[in-house]
Predict the 3D structure of the following.
Amino acid sequence: MSAPALSPSAALPTPAAPALAMFLALLLGATCIGFSGVFVRFADVGPAAAGFWRMAFALPVLGLWMGLEQRRPGRPSATASSLLPIALAGLAFGVDVVLYNASLAFTTIANASLLGNLSPVVVVLGAWLLFAERPSRRILGALALALGGAVMLVLPKFAGSAVPAPGGLFGDSLAIGAAVSYAAYILAVRRARDRAAAGRISLISSAICAVFCLVTALALGETIMPASLQGWLAVIALGLVSHALGQGLITLSLGHYGASAASLVMVWPAMVSVLAAWALFGEQPSPAQAFGGVAILAAVLMVRKG
């Protein structure tokens, strides 16, 4: 639901449960994002530079999306009041991307993804405090189940030797910082979606994020240009799969889901990341991690039921 004041049906009550199509869009977007850690590992550039390329390759697709969106009658235009949350979304996502990508050099993909997806805790509280969007008992129960599953997934990584001891704590701290930043992004997009269309929000916020990442990469003296075909393919996949498709679908679905429910489904990328890391890098999950993954799946189904 975007810009209700422009639609004759705006006075109608919002359906209790989002349409199946929007739920599938949210889940598909989360799945695409789940592969971002794999793509970053294959890229031969710095963490902020990888974020820049992610945005750069996504921008043409997002521009096409916004152009098609503007052709549809009744679509809202960005207002002055929407520009601030869009800009904040771009900056918050830039911080999230840089911190998450940097954490992959110091911890496992599973740890980075799991800790980076603790943002639902912050989003639920933020949506409650800022938007008076009080979560239902089912959402709170699903949140507890999802976070419990995430704990089950991450504890074996802390106890085992998969993470190098000297850098593990630092990498995990970066991932937690990414979680807080991503929560700010979700809340900013949620506010912007009340005033502007999804395509416009995605394009403008991604452009701001690209500038932030490029400036950060230059300031840190990172390698910016990929030096191999694998590196180029990795950053292209970051842009087209993880961002244009993944983040675009997330932004679209946030117009139909409340921030609390949508953020809960964001724990799904952690499951995708664990499985991908197992298949590609030999990070085999333990029985406890597998149980945690089942708990996350159960939480996703609870969210679907509203």
